[in-house]
Amino acid sequence: MNKLPLVLCPGLLCDAALWAPQVAALADIAEVWIPDFTRQQTIAEMGAWVLSAAPWPQFALAGLSMGGYIALEAFLQAPRRIQRLALLDARARPETPADRTRRQQMIALAERERGFGALTRQLLPLMVHSSRTDDTALTGVIKDMANRTGVDAYARQQAAIISRRDFRPFLRHVDVPTLVLCGREDLITPLDCSEELAGAIPGAQLTVLEDCGHLSTLEMPAAVNPALCRWLQPPKTRP
Question: How confident is the model at residue 44 (pLDDT cuts 50, 70, 90)?
Fold first, then answer.
């Protein structure tokens, strides 16, 4: 069986480890490439990097959080190259003034400390479900990703998120099979953001995971993996 080409875009302060459970679960049906977003300055540059570096002319594209913004951007830049789209714990809305201030404060904190100790203590309760904040295996993966990303790349990623475009006017033009997935208790991109995405993209499928926070791929892979498998399946044809 030919494997489907699949690009998985990590979120803020994340790398390929964010998708490790999915890479393993989809190994029989998908050939996966995971981009690195530590050097680009804007979401537009990140989307262009996906398109220039992806090893296939056409592919399915999934992204979580910042990765979702990048996936939308890549689709807008080259819609005929994207065969399927999955937006996990993401949003179409641009940043509010309060969002920008909060992100700038987090950049300042990380740069002042040259690390993520205090920042991680602030972010972890927002990034995972309240029942998982003491799960050292899960939080260890998150902390390790942050340390590998580094403060300078984190500052660039935050600045890119702050300056991203408003995707809402373009959602009606998404014409590929689209999965929108969100943890019901996501505090960073709340459920109404995913409902807005799914409601505006023609034919989009909304999947809501109970007792799950923002980092759904790591928190609930047993639910995320089947959803992605269904999304990757070709449509059934009538005999």
Answer: very high
Residue with the two structure tokens 């050292």:
136
CB 188 within 8 A of CB 68: no
Segment 123-162, tens digit of pLDDT: 899 999 999 999 999 999 999 999 999 999 999 999 999 9
Alpha helices (H) in 36-116, listed in sequence order: 43-53, 66-77, 97-113
Contact 126, 187 (CB under 8 A): yes
Please state the three-class secondary structure of 140-201 as a single string: HHHHHHHHHHCHHHHHHHHHHHHCCCCCHHHHHHCCCCEEEEEECCCCCCCHHHHHHHHHHC
Q: What is the mean pLDDT of residues 179-193?
A: 97
Are the beta carbons of 231 and 151 closer than 8 angstroms? no
The CATH architecture of the domain made up of 1-239 is 3-Layer(aba) Sandwich (3.40)
Beta bridge partners of 206: 180
d(Cα 176, Cα 145) in Å, to the nearest integer? 31
Amino acid letter, residue 179: L
Nearest alpha-carbon partner for 78 in 58, 63, 56: 58
Instruction: Output the pLDDT for position 157.
Output: 97
Q: Are the C-beta atoms of 74 and 53 separated by less than 8 Å?
A: no
Percent above pLDDT 90 for the chain: 89
On the question of pLDDT at 238 being above 50, the answer is no
Bridge partners of residue 209, in order along the sequence: 183
